[in-house]
Amino acid sequence: MRCVRGLLACAALALGGCGDGGSGFGPPPPVNVTGSWSFNIRNLTTAGLGFSCAVAGTMQLSQTGASFGGTYHASSFTCTNGFNGGSGDGTVVNGTVYAGDSVHFHFDIEDLDQHGVVSGDRNTMAGVSTWVATDGMPVTLTGNWTAHR
Predict the structure, then answer these.
(1) Model pTM greater than 0.85?
(2) Contact, 32 vs 41, CB < 8 A?
(3) Residues 135 and 125: beta-carbon distance below 8 Å
(4) In the 3-class helix/strand/coil scheme, how is the chain assigned residue by residue?
(5) Separation of alpha carbons 142 and 77, rounded Å
(6) Residue 94 CB-half CA count within 13 A
(7) Which of 44, 41, 8 is nearest to 116 (CA)?
(8) Quick one: 107 exposed, middle or buried, by C-beta within 10 A (0-12, 13-18, 19+)?
């Protein structure tokens, strides 16, 4: 197809197949994270301590608008220094979906922070964990997390 009537006509033709089937323009709707997710947090570490920790478990999330929350079950919490935190349950709090596909949430308290992005197929998400331990002198652990439905 040749666009001979100007750039505006060509742009209109090119955009005709974009968006929601060509009937509208704009970004895709925000992702909905409602449902069951399995998660892994790996390489939680801080400079100078010489060990790392990992957490595995499941989350059950419920979303209303851009906000979400729910519950989690940590099936394991282990560290390379021999620490074994066992298993436990808790609450996913202050969850937010922003910029269409980005998420931010906490496990129980603000100090257990996760930022990430939901994949295009909406079945996986991944990002960075930043955990601050305040038992005595504050220590910040950072690592990577993934979750899938």
Answers:
(1) no
(2) no
(3) no
(4) CCCCCCHHHHHHHHHCCCCCCCCCCCCCCCCCCCEEEEEEEEEEECCCCCCEEEEEEEEEEEEECCEEEEEEEEEEEEECCCCECCCEEEEEEEEEEECCCEEEEEECCCCEEEEEEECCCCCEEEEEEEEEECCCCCEEEEEEEEEEC
(5) 15
(6) 12
(7) 41
(8) buried
The two tokens of residue 63 are 């979303």
- The tokens describing 12, both together, are 């209109």
pLDDT reading at 134 higher than 90: no
- Distance in angstroms (rounded) separating the CA atoms of residues 54 and 41: 5
Residue written as token pair 């331990």: 133
pLDDT of residue 138: 85
- 69 pLDDT more than 80: yes
C-alpha separations of 12 from 9, 18, 127 in Å: 5, 10, 37
State both tokens at 147: 């979750």
